[in-house]
Amino acid sequence: MAMDQFFQTLEKQYIEGSYSEVITSLLSHSQDIQSGLYHYNLGTLYAKMGKMGIARFHFERALGQGNVSAMVMNNLSAVKESLTQSALQKPEGLSYQTLFSIGEMPDQIFLTFGLIVAIISIFVCRFRILKYWKHLLVVGLLGFIPYVTISLVKEDVNFAICLERSNILEGPSEIYKVNDELPEGIKVLLGDTKGDFIFIKAPEKYTGWVKRIDIGIL
Predict the structure, then answer these.
(1) What is the mean pLDDT of residues 84-101?
(2) Rounded to 10 degrees, what is the CA torsion of 202, 204, 207, 210?
(3) For 113-172, how does the pLDDT look when each residue is reduced to its tens digit (9 = 90+)?
(4) Model pTM greater than 0.85?
(5) Facing residues of 60 across strands?
(6) What is the pLDDT of residues 4-13, one digit of tens each?
(7) Within a 10 A sphere around the Cβ of 3, how many other Cβ atoms?
(8) Secondary structure (3-state) at 185
(9) CB-based contact 177:66 (threshold 8 Å)
(10) What is the largest CA-CA distance in the chain?
């Protein structure tokens, strides 16, 4: 009952346009709300406030937490359309392009594929549609290989969204020369961390060090 009242209050504040108050309330109840829904709501609120970098971060997090609803996909698409072309730049190398493509695919897609293959294999074995049922069981298990492979790859690869424009430095300190500026909302591949700074590996145009506080790790 308490949570019902909480959401009613949030809805009232949202209708009144008190987005900052809704965000504060959500942040204070982050442990009480399903993660995918939590990030979807935050993404929607930040988009309403025009903070598209932070909005993209939360929509991407919502997808990563299993919320692959049409609302999340549509809102994420709308946020991307509002970003500058530089913020949508893709890496040039084939290996980086592959990693970015993998990073944009929710794990649930591969898990669902594995489950479908397994269910079909069980169905075929159960009704003995094909003679070599052991082979079908192997096929069913192999259906989970893409999910396991992608999960292992993602464990060793860190992506992030630039929450707001950030200077790209030659080294991990503000004493170093500023080489460029990381656009708000761009998706990047991360490297090493040193103190309060983190290295951007890709896209290649934006390689360098940025403040850790300016990016949201997915």
Answers:
(1) 68
(2) -50
(3) 656 666 666 666 665 555 555 555 555 566 566 666 666 556 667 889 999 999 999 999
(4) no
(5) none
(6) 788 888 888 8
(7) 10
(8) coil
(9) no
(10) 71
Q: CA dihedral defined by 201, 85, 49, 20, rounded to 10 degrees?
A: 0
Decide the pairing of beta strands 197-202 and 187-194: antiparallel
**Confidence class for position 66, pLDDT limits 50, 70, 90:** confident
35-48 vs 19-28: helix crossing angle, rounded to 10: 160
Give the whole-angstrom CA distance, residue 168 versus residue 128. 62
Residues found in the chain: 218
* Cα gap 154→60, rounded to integer Å: 14
- Comparing CA positions, the residue from 158, 213, 161 lying closest to residue 191 is 158
* Identity of the amino acid at 167: N
The identity of residue 78, as a single letter, is A
Band the pLDDT of 106: cuts 50, 70, 90: low
